[in-house]
Amino acid sequence: MGDKLNLQRQSFLGAGSEIVLGRSRAALVGLGGGGSHIAQQLAHIGLGNFLVIDSDFIDDTNLNRLVGATMEDVRLGTAKIDIAERVIKAVNPAAETIKRRANWTEVTAELRDVDVIFACVDSIGCRSELEGFARRFLIPLIDIGMDVHESSGEFSISGQVMLSMPGKPCMRCMGLVTDEALAKEAARYGAAGGKPQVVWPNGTLASIAVGLFMKLVTPWETHKVTPLLLEYDGDLQTVAPSNKLAYLPAYCKHFDSLNELGDPFWTPDALAVVE
Length: 275
Fold this sequence. Notes:
Blueprint: H1 17-23, E1 25-29, H2 33-45, E2 49-53, H3 71-76, H4 80-91, E3 96-100, H5 108-111, E4 116-119, H6 124-136, E5 141-151, E6 154-164, H7 179-187, H8 199-217, E7 229-233, E8 238-241, H9 268-274
Parallel strand pairs: 1-2, 1-4, 2-3, 4-5
Antiparallel strand pairs: 5-6, 6-7, 7-8
């Protein structure tokens, strides 16, 4: 059989789905608890091309949630992108994996060349900026996030998965990004790290994100509506479309101008030079 991934048992995804997945390219921005799950699952479903982006190295605080990481990686200080590549290649050696140990803003030329972006970051500001980039280049963005809240000594887990599509409601429309939240984060000098994270909510949210990706790129379920915002209740162990969806505008009111689309440095003169 060689190194070719056998995908016969997911043929229900539609005729040619294996070819489509093999040719598709996804970017993973952030390879911690959520991103590492997504990398593993995309490898299993046969994604052929990965762009993995993270500037960080593993430490002992990551082992409770980072898929594929080992105590030996902690000892060696392995880069998270290298762990992700190892996981991907162990499942699908034929997958092309481009690694960038950098901030996503440093690799925008490569990021423009993907079909979907998975945003697995903690910062609200980073989420907002990454969505703005994705909107400019008409790239669907799938964002995941989770948090743990304390009330009267009790802890509750919650999270969400959001699909940001060109022309559809954005993070601001859905209330996930607000001026107040950005201001509070800026007052803390942008330090959004240290949020409680555990493996099973990360895995749940990552699985939903991969499911949304599959609905985007394969012929599976073409006649059904794809919810743009799904909410996770970690106490009840439930996932459901958000109640906010009933009140959202049909079209995004924040990215509504053609002036906000495309390469900001593109001009007719630049095209003439290329020709």
